[in-house]
Write a structure and sequence with these properties.
CATH superfamily of the largest domain: Hexapeptide repeat proteins
CATH architecture of the largest domain: 3 Solenoid
Number of strands: 24
Number of domains: 2
CATH class of the largest domain: Mainly Beta
Distance between the termini: 46 Å
Helix content: 10-25%
Shape: globular
Length: 210
């Protein structure tokens, strides 16, 4: 059994807490949150402090690993948090038992894979990635560090998604596509050509918005 601390006690942190509690033998011991005072509680678990307290609490042997629960609106901050603690504190990687991960797939540190996902052969998932329910990523594709995949995203084979991308609910990426960093796909977006410029893309096929 691992003792886990979650950075972020909002809705995403509470979702991850639920999955860890119901799908593993590991134990969440508390949250770190800059917006709540130490000693408060969320879901009957204590606020252990803010991000500046993480290392000192770890040194007190209160938890074994951390996981970052910061949503898609703050991916730059999520990346900063990860890089702050990388090689200092172990990151917890969560893969729900209802998902299929091919043995040849590689899952990075601190990543979260929700239920009913399909991760095919030779797929590489980077560090600090969140893959929401019912996503499918086909063979030989890459999802870069700090990405956020919404529910029911479908990624075909030989796709490369660069870091800090947001793939909206039900978005689809056909095979052999490269998506540059900091791209956001709107809900239901369909990508049929490479995307080389950061920004928001929507529609079928996608068009650049801003």
């Amino acid at each position: 059994m691992k003792r886990i601390a979650i950075i972020g006690s909002g809705h995403l942190g509470q979702q991850i807490l639920h999955h860890i509690q119901t799908d593993t033998d590991d134990k969440v011991v508390g949250f770190f949150d800059d917006f709540l005072e130490k000693g408060n509680s969320v879901k009957d678990l204590p606020i252990l402090g803010g991000k500046e307290d993480v290392i000192s609490v770890f040194q007190q042997d209160i938890f074994d690993e951390i996981i970052i629960a910061i949503g898609y609106n703050h991916l730059e901050f999520k990346k900063q948090i990860f890089e702050t603690f990388k090689n200092k504190i172990p990151f917890y990687t969560f893969i729900h038992s209802a998902s299929y991960i091919d043995p040849s797939a590689k899952i990075g540190e601190g990543s979260v894979i929700y239920p009913d996902c399909m991760i095919d052969q030779n797929v590489k998932i980077g560090d600090n990635v969140l893959i929401n329910i019912s996503c499918s990523i086909a063979h030989d594709s890459l999802i870069g560090n700090h990405c956020f995949l919404s529910p029911a995203v479908a990624v075909a084979g030989f796709v490369s998604v660069s870091q800090q991308c947001i793939l909206g609910i039900n978005s689809t990426v056909i095979d052999n596509i490269h998506i540059s960093e900091k791209v956001q796909l709107g809900g239901g977006a369909v990508v049929i050509k490479n995307i080389s410029e950061s920004g928001l893309y929507v529609g079928n096929p996608v068009r650049f918005i801003r």
